[in-house]
Specification:
Length: 211
């Protein structure tokens, strides 16, 4: 399932590609504008609509798109509402487009939402510009990313028993904690690289441009 939220404006080609392969498209607030500008009609729009121009709202209504509007004074972000909606509708996997932007607080909160999905047994990732962000628990294979820049950070204070195989910088049964970001700027060295985490969860950030 695809969630389009209101961070950095996505490339139209990327948005069309992701929408075409998704069972459902949920737009969170300004994400609805991104969808319409790319020629995509979302299946549902959620949020307080404080960032969505009236003209866009009118276009959604004329296209009979389901809109679930929430009060601006609420505990949940618009993206969290969209994630919860996707989980409620039985999503097995969630891709969040435009989850990173100029508001660092919202960007960080969206990374935390990956854990909200994971805790419900749902895989989730953020795709924004040159970055792809996802969580790794226990064991994971990085496939067909040879040469890509990748960083690993613990989600929370620490993660332990970490082994990286098939990377430029390999480690064996090493711990990572918030005070020493040793996992920054690694490089995928093989078509199938392996990550093992004995305890805790890692945030993985792939930068495909190599910057």
């Amino acid at each position: 399932m695809l969630i389009v939220t209101g961070g950095e404006r996505p490339e139209k080609a990327l948005l069309k590609e992701k929408a075409a392969s998704s069972s459902m498209v949920v737009a969170a607030d300004r994400g609805a504008e991104y969808c319409l500008k790319a020629g995509i009609l979302p299946d549902m729009v959620v949020g307080d609509m404080d960032s969505l121009p009236i003209g866009i709202q009118d276009e959604l209504v004329s296209n009979k798109i389901e809109i679930r509007k929430f009060d601006c004074r609420k505990d949940m972000t618009d993206t969290q509402i969209a994630v919860d909606m996707a989980i409620e509708k039985g999503a097995g996997e969630i891709e969040i487009v435009s989850g990173i932007g100029s508001r660092f607080d919202h960007s960080l909160a969206n990374v935390y939402l990956l854990y909200r999905a994971l805790s419900q047994g749902v895989k989730a990732k953020i795709i924004s510009g040159i970055h792809e962000i996802f969580l790794i628990e226990k064991k994971f294979a990085i496939i067909n990313e040879t040469g890509s820049l990748i960083s690993f950070l613990p989600l929370g204070y620490y993660a332990s028993g970490i082994t990286l195989k098939g990377f430029e910088y390999e480690i064996d049964n090493t711990d990572m904690d918030m005070s020493f970001p040793i996992g920054i700027s690694n490089v995928v060295g093989k078509d199938s690289a392996e990550v093992i985490v004995s305890e805790g969860i890692l945030i993985a950030i792939i930068t495909r441009s190599g910057e």
